[in-house]
Predict the 3D structure of the following.
Amino acid sequence: MMRPNDDFLSAPELDYDGFRSAMREDWGWFTPARETNFFASKVRTRRVFGFAAVDLTCSATRLERTEQDIRRDNMEYYFVTVQDTGESIIIHNDRVVNITAGDVILLDSTKPVTFISRAQDSAQWLGVQVPRQKLASHLGFEPQGGVCGPRQAQASRLLCQLALDPISDAEPAFASTDQFMHLVVYDLLGALFAPPAPLGSRHNDKLFMRVCGIIKDRFADPDISPREVAAEAGISLRYLQKLFTVRGSTCGHHICSARLDHAARLIERRALMKTGQPLSDIAYACGFRDYTHFARGFRRRFGTAPGAVGAGTTDNDSARV
């Protein structure tokens, strides 16, 4: 069973208005039920590898984000919610989900959500906010809110460990590490919430894994293309496109993602070892013919310019490449 840390336990208690005010800046509007004259809560906002996070407890047996709340703040994000202790029911996106300590559930801020505490004790939750567009871009599909990742799943355990580890509150040794930890969190969410494969697709799954293996081996070749991948896999280009379409992606996107991920690892090593390797060399080594195209894709995927990776660097470093 997971427990809030000492900082959270020592946080001041908030009344109804104080709770809503504390949540509003980063998380938008939430409406606890006022069942009795007594209301008590604790809210501790913090950062987890650069993501906004919140530890909260609330005496209300019902906590909602209503249609009116959504219209009022117009905020768009996913929030990954973990039940710290006890059990709850979450109603979201036409799903009714029973969760217990350690379960991970993905929620969509643009859809109404209701938390119902099953016990008389104050419900305790951990929430981590994830940028909607960046997560969907990284995964190649848009996850659906209201899906639960059971506590028994390895990805759930790893996510909980990352979010609850006290070291997450400390300033990282290298500011650039946050963006790479973002990728870890995104991949764990992908492992938990990827859409199920169509029934009867066992053969297609094996074929898709073979195609991914081809891309993994050849992404550094600037001449590799979906047509080349299809030819090596012994299938038609149209069939190759279908393999990716049912998974919410494209072959071209997969190739580009493999190149950018490898480039990110090389650039991180460059920053840590201070080798001074030209960024253009890294781009070309990863299969990009044009540095400008590479830099644009890198910024779109990771939210920063390639030259800004590493302590003390700025976007101007990219301009000198």
In short: Confidence is low (pLDDT under 50) at residues 167-173, 311-321.
